[in-house]
Write a structure and sequence with these properties.
mainly beta; five-stranded antiparallel beta sheet; four-stranded antiparallel beta sheet
Length: 128
């Protein structure tokens, strides 16, 4: 498990290799990840946007920017946790992801970024 706390928001990540498939005459590697966002601060925080940097072992990088996570913009009161699952597909058996969430404190309308720490994606059969 990968974890990091930024401004009282704890991010915990677990990953899993889901398998391979062929598309456009090449093999692709599917990964899932579960992210838990826990508000350990004393303020309410709403996740309003995300930015991902998806890095592949073959030096391909992809930036993904969007609103919320899996169609939601959760509001976390102090002590509350939001967990979601998502995934990505790589063209190589190894890669990593990192990024940040843009959060909003509704009580004062201030925005702040929370770091999503770098986490590895690796196909189980390719590990030694």
């Amino acid at each position: 498990m990968t974890e990091q706390i930024t401004k009282g928001i704890k991010i915990s990540i677990e990953t899993e290799f889901e398998g391979t498939f062929y598309k456009d005459n090449s093999i692709h590697y599917a990964f899932s990840y579960e992210i838990s966002i826990e508000n350990q601060s004393s303020e309410i925080a709403q996740l309003i946007a995300r930015k991902w940097n998806i890095m592949e072992a073959l030096n391909d990088n992809e930036i993904v920017i969007g609103e919320g996570v899996v169609g939601e913009q959760p509001i976390l009161i102090p002590g509350e946790r939001h967990t979601y699952k998502s995934g990505c597909v790589l063209k190589s058996p190894f890669g990593a992801m990192k990024g940040n969430y843009l959060m909003l404190n509704p009580s004062n309308s201030k925005q702040f970024k929370v770091t999503i720490p770098t986490f590895k994606l690796s196909a189980s059969f390719a590990q030694n």
